[in-house]
Amino acid sequence: MDETVTDIVPSLRKMATNNRDIYEKGMKALVSFVQFYRKHECSLIFRTSDLNLGKLATGFGLIKMPVMPELKDKTVDFDPVDIDVENIRYKNKTREKERKRKLQERKASCEDVAQQANAKKKKKQERNSVPWSKNKERKTNREKRKARREFMKKQRQQHLQERKELEELAREASLLKKFRSGKITKVEFDSRVRIEDQVYD
């Protein structure tokens, strides 16, 4: 490196560790630059495979490599800064407050998912640890309940059929009474009986 050129990378990286806005802009700048290369029409000149992504990231003052498809299954020459990036704050108090709120929500959501997964795992373990005799007893009880439901269903159907037949007999008896008392003729009696037989068949 030319000694007359000031190396500003350390300063950039230090700024990124103290200001989340600079940290995020550096990450976005690298991703945008690589995307430009990858999508450029003149791919013979702008070849992503020729880029030294590690040195490029260092030049952008990054303190860690971003997650991007171009880095998949690749080893890059990059020296990350040993820092928890979640602790890097915004200088703007409003943005920092909003970031912390979202961070807490995400953390709570992750904890809920973990608790649900643990509860599901525990339930499965308990189910698998139930003795064979207990499982057999449960199966027997299920079969008994099923048989009882089927029996009750048949009983209801039989009861409905019996009630239907009784109602039909009562109607025929009423028609017969009217016929004997002369209120309806033989033709009317036969006709009504046939109609009701068709309705209740």
UniProtKB/TrEMBL annotation:
Residues 7-70 form the ATP-dependent rRNA helicase SPB4-like C-terminal extension domain. Pfam families: CTE_SPB4 (PF13959), CTT_SPB4 (PF23681). One of its GO terms (molecular function) is helicase activity. Residues 149-164 have a biased composition (Basic and acidic residues). Residues 95-164 are annotated as: Disordered. Keywords: ATP-binding, Helicase, Hydrolase, Nucleotide-binding. This is ATP-dependent RNA helicase DDX55. It comes from Acropora cervicornis (Staghorn coral).
